[in-house]
């Protein structure tokens, strides 16, 4: 379960958002919608630990997450808009790398787990390929497998349908639903409202549900 | 032909010195250049400033002058007296490290921020990120520029004559002035060309080997 309490972010004088309160229960899928440039990605980067927040708390499975921008560990799995796969590693290596380096899992075990995850996501044939050989949808599923390999408390997607064709979008929806049945908590930042409504248990409208006025 | 065979041993003897300077410089300057490139991007202002000044001095003054300074200058100033060969190799390493640092800095800058973000959210430490994610990609990007510097280094190694070291060029010089002929220079040129051809071949092989991804 992720609890967001009184979260706020300011750039200079400009309040991006403040007094943001939100709870996502275990196994729930939450969409955060709103037009481009409204601060959704800023929020996601704070959740991912890549940007500091100015105020508030992030509590994941009863543990407080660092919000100073210096987080250690992979409590929040992130699927970036550009996927950010490592181009010099194969698909399997992309997935098996972090468990080996961060969790000190033995190589064989990490690779076995990676194979399992990739199999579940329909990427058996791509395991030994490099990211440049994959389609956008395939890259995205590799990114999902890579995040899942670290067993995060929540998976967060940044604009998962941008740049995908209709077929690939359907496939992402399927994957998100499949992960939901496996109990994975998921948060999706998107401006694609039909997609958000198709996958989410609850939708949070960044344009309406957060406060952006005044000062902190 | 007889004459060529006659002077070849002395030239090959000089070649040993050239290769010695070349190999040791490469071994020392590439890792040092990597470290300096990291320092150039450091958040510690003083470190960054000092390293920028270092690169400025090393790239802004002739290598010949630096060799003279390290060998004669340090000795005259009673700081330390280095043997000729060590003085030459140390100067070459310090000089080439500055060039390599700038090449690596450019390479690091060309890696998208997303690679750092991807590594960070997976929990990789800064060291792991640089070692496993960034530097392998940088190596591929900088390989052509590094190859260029390597070719320069082969030729620059002839500058060690200034402190009396007997390299290939000096061996050619001695033979040419003793026998009043240009033939030794022709041979010297040929040997340099072979060296450069070898270096280029190795560089191309490495580039090809690293071309498994885009």
Automatic annotation (TrEMBL), chain A:
GO molecular function: ATP binding; ATP hydrolysis activity
Keywords per UniProt: ATP-binding, Nucleotide-binding, Transport
Residue ranges of every copy of the ABC transporter domain listed in the record: 2-216
UniProt superkingdom: Bacteria
Pfam families recorded: ABC_tran
InterPro entries reported for this sequence: AAA+_ATPase, ABC_SmlMolc_Importer, ABC_transporter-like_ATP-bd, ABC_transporter-like_CS, P-loop_NTPase
The protein's name: Amino acid ABC transporter ATP-binding protein, PAAT family (TC 3.A.1.3.-)
Automatic annotation (TrEMBL), chain B:
GO CC terms of this entry: ATP-binding cassette (ABC) transporter complex
Membrane topology classification: Multi-pass membrane protein
Extent of the signal sequence: none
Keyword Magnesium applies: no
Transmembrane residue ranges: 20-41, 53-74, 182-202
Gene Ontology BP term (one): amino acid transport
Domain of life: Bacteria
Protein's cellular compartments: Cell membrane
CDD domains, per database record: TM_PBP2
Domain ABC transmembrane type-1: 15-203
NCBIfam families: HEQRo_perm_3TM
Protein name according to UniProt: Polar amino acid transport system permease protein
UniProt organism field: Weissella bombi
Classification of source organism: Bacteria, Bacillati, Bacillota, Bacilli, Lactobacillales
């Amino acid at each position: 379960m992720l609890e967001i309490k009184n979260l706020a972010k300011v750039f200079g004088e400009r309040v991006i958002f403040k007094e943001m309160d939100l709870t996502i229960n275990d196994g729930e899928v939450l969409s955060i919608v709103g037009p481009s440039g409204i601060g959704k990605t800023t929020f996601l980067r704070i959740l991912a630990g890549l940007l500091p927040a100015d105020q508030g708390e992030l509590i994941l499975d009863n543990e407080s997450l660092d919000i100073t921008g210096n987080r250690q560990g992979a409590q929040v799995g992130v699927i970036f808009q550009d996927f950010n796969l490592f181009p010099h590693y194969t698909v399997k290596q992309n997935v098996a790398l972090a468990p080996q380096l961060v969790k000190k899992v033995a190589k064989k075990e990490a690779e076995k787990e990676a194979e399992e995850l990739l199999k579940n996501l329909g990427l058996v044939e791509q395991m030994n390929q490099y990211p440049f050989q994959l389609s956008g949808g395939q890259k995205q599923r590799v990114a999902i497998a890579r995040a899942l390999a670290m067993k995060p408390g929540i998976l967060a997607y940044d604009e998962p349908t941008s740049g995908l064709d209709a077929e690939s979008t359907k496939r992402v929806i399927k994957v998100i639903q499949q992960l939901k049945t496996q109990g994975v908590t998921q948060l999706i930042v998107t401006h694609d409202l039909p997609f958000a409504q198709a996958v989410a248990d609850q939708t949070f409208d960044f344009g309406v549900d957060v406060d952006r006025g005044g000062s902190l | 032909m007889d004459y060529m065979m006659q002077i070849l041993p002395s030239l090959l003897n000089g070649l040993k010195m050239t290769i010695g300077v070349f190999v040791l410089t490469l071994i020392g300057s590439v890792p040092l250049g990597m470290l300096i490139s990291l320092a150039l991007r450091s958040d510690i202002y003083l470190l960054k400033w000092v390293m920028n000044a270092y690169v400025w001095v090393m790239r802004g003054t002739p290598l010949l002058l630096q060799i003279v300074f390290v060998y004669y200058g340090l000795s005259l100033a009673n700081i330390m007296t280095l043997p000729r060969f060590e003085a030459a190799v140390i100067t070459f390493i310090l000089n080439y490290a500055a060039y390599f640092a700038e090449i690596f800095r450019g390479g690091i800058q060309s890696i998208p921020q997303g690679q750092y973000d991807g590594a960070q959210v997976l929990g990789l430490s800064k060291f792991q990120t640089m070692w496993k994610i960034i530097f392998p990609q940088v190596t591929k990007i900088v390989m052509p520029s590094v190859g260029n510097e390597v070719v320069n280094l082969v030729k620059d190694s002839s500058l060690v004559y200034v402190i009396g070291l007997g390299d290939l060029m000096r061996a050619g010089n001695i033979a040419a002035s003793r026998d009043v002929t240009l033939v030794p220079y022709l041979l010297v040129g040929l040997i340099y060309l072979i060296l450069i051809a070898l270096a280029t071949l190795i560089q191309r092989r490495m580039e090809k080997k690293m071309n498994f991804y885009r």
